[in-house]
Amino acid sequence: MSQPELWIPKTRSKETACQVPESIQTQVVVRQYQKLKEIAGTPGQPRLIVIDEEAYGEWEQAQQEFPPETGALLLDFGSRPELTGDSEKLLGWVSAAGLTESRWEFLILQGLETLAARNRLQALEEALGEQRNRLEELNEIGVSLSGEKNLTRLLRLIIANAMKLTHADGGSLYLLEPIPDEPEDPNNYLANQQLHFEVLINDSRKMSAEAILLAITPDSICGQVILTGKPILLDDVYDLPPDGAVQWGGKAVDKRYGYRTKSMLTVPLLTHEGRVAGVLQLLNRKQHREQVLGDVADILKEVCSFDNEDLRVIESIASQAATALSNAQLLGSIHILFDGFINASVKAIESRDPTTSGHSSRVATLTIALAELVHQMPTGRFRDTHFSIDQLHEIRYASLLHDFGKIGVREQVLIKAKKLYPNEEQAVMDRFRLIRQSLELSMTRKQLEYFLEKSRGDAVAAYGQGQQELEERLHELDEQLEFVIRCNEPTVLAQGGFEKLQEIEQLRFAHPSGVEMPYLNTGELHSLSVPKGSLNEQDRAEIESHVTHTYNFLRIIPWSANLSQVPEIAHAHHEKLNGSGYPRKLNGGQIPLQAKMMTIADIYDALTAWDRPYKKAMPAERAFNILGFEAKDGNIDTDLLEVFIDAKLYTLVSRPRTN
Predict the structure, then answer these.
(1) How far is 569 from 393, CA to CA, in rounded Å?
(2) Is residue 127 situated within a structural domain?
(3) Using an 8 Å Cβ cutoff, are 617 and 609 in contact?
(4) Which has the minimum average pLDDT: 30-44, 335-349, 632-646?
């Protein structure tokens, strides 16, 4: 620091009292002033100003323009002015009468020392303030790091905060990852590890982080930090000796971007077990945090070295970052494990009903896509509807598990391809075969009686007539069986015209046991008369129970608070807006929006699925028509259906081409 300044009023420069003692002239720079406002400003060193009573009024008005390292000595030549206002910068009030040289020297030196002490105190206060701000920022960083669960955002957050606290112009982060097919060494956890370049941020250049894998070697800066577990602080990476312990290989990158890397700070990310999880590297500490670095000359002028305080701060961030990374990776592993459980559960139910394989995944894909689109809509009914990441996870899990309750439904009901079960269909076929045989046997007996009781001519005539009656009756029987077979085939849309079934059910035949039996029993008539699909009332009640089974199953899972709505969403996916759905007959206002979206996806996939045994795959256009009828009848949400169709979300699920 240069010498302090002593300013004397020019009007008093000839006064004996204002003469500067020779003993201190080498310790100060003596200057004169005409008006105080002329010397106001920010000096680079302490400045002691001597004022007289005539200049005191001017001092009161101008003192706020002087920085804290400025002080004044009031030299009273007899008028004794009245002191008013803020006198903090007024270091003393001295009478000029009888002022000795030694006394004057003492007052000047005391004033200068007071100013120096004030400057030191101010510097300490500024340092403490900066330290306090750093601690507050570190605390905020810790909170933000612990609260961020997304690994990509977390990595960028770590670098951005480290750069902010150290005035660094750039930063990058490397994480350890296993080398594929490389066995672990129980004595050296680094033996099968490599560095993956994850994130790069630079405030002065638009740089992209390329996916680079680096070997851990002792001659690289990052490798040395990992192997030793200790930080490396470099003033200028271009000044590293060629035969030194570490080398820096980033000159090509500097050349590509017209940049100049100078100072560098590299610290390890150490877990609580003392293992290195990665490396945080900062470069080019700037004297001014917000400065954007220009050309190489500008960089060399602005960039300074990282200091030990920066190192302590970054080591603290690195410690918090390592913990946050460990937590995020652990959470990611838990998500992977839970997703595995979800997928295994879906496969378990689909293994009982292979004909619906892939249905749950397709419904999840369509529902999530619809939710994301609704989330982004700027206008209309859904402009204020938004879903968080956790809520999207809820929707995904609910969609994947919406049919899990089918595990409590009998397999024969799940895979029922026709209105009659296979054994029931076989019983009907056997019965009609028996009826045919009974008709043929009855006619054969009659024909024998003709030949035993009638003349040959009459018998032949009666035989021919009987044979014609038999053929007509057998033809009628075949038509009845064909009608039954047609009725056994399920349809997507409601069908009628089952009156003929009731006529067939009224017909009787003589069983070989002697008991008269109907062509169709009551249960068969009931099943064959189902207007839509393959399920009768009993079957449908059992199938519909899968929703309650699903809810009961999902309810016992200890979902975290952010996934607590999964059971409720899945529970409502068969409810209708008009209250005609099941199992709880909820109306539109009681059904979660997520369930309304899933309902559309579920119906669409059921209509267009190519793997259902009771129907062929339906073209998308026809499925839209049916969904339109559902919306018109008040079963599903019209607005959501419009979004679903207009955005062509249905194209997200692949299916083979249909005729």
Answers:
(1) 12
(2) no
(3) yes
(4) 30-44
Query: What DSSP designation does 590 have?
Result: G
94: three-class secondary structure by DSSP: strand
Cα separation of 279 and 199, whole Å? Answer: 11
> Structural domain of residue 603, as residue ranges?
353-413+539-652
- The per-residue pLDDT for range 130-156, each reduced to its tens digit, is 767 766 776 676 666 666 666 777 778
Any domain includes 344 = no
Does one domain contain both 30 and 52? yes
Closest CA to 237 of 222, 226, 227: 222
Burial label for 261, CB within 10 Å (0-12, 13-18, 19+), is buried
Helices then strands, each counted (H, E), the chain: 19, 14
At 645, which CATH number?
1.10.3210.10
List the structure tokens of 264. Answer: 């560098």
Residue 189, pLDDT > 70, answer yes
Output the CA torsion 516→519→522→524 (10° steps): 140
One domain for residues 546 and 616: yes
Whether residues 528 and 544 fall in one domain = no
pLDDT score at 75: 82
| CA distance linking residue 284 with residue 202, whole number of Å | 10
Q: Which amino acid is at 72?
A: A
- Where do we find the tokens 């209309």? 380
For residue 218, tell me if it sits in a domain: yes
Residue after which a domain boundary falls, among 497, 514, 533: 533
At residue 470, the 3 state secondary structure works out as: helix
Model pLDDT, residue 659: 47
CATH of the domain at 270: 3.30.450.40
Judgement on whether residues 193 and 70 belong to the same structural domain of the protein: no
Q: Which residues pair with 175 in a beta bridge?
A: 196, 278
Closest by alpha carbon to 313, among 124, 136, 121, 151? Answer: 136
Q: By C-alpha distance, which of 631, 429, 424 is closest to 536?
A: 424
Q: Is the pTM of this model over 0.85?
A: no
Q: Which helix (H) or strand (E) holds 7?
A: strand 5-9
- Report the relative pairing of strands 47-52 and 70-76 from DSSP bridges: parallel
Same domain, 281 and 155: yes
Query: What's the structural domain count of the chain?
Result: 4
Kindly state whether residue 548 falls inside one of the protein's structural domains: yes
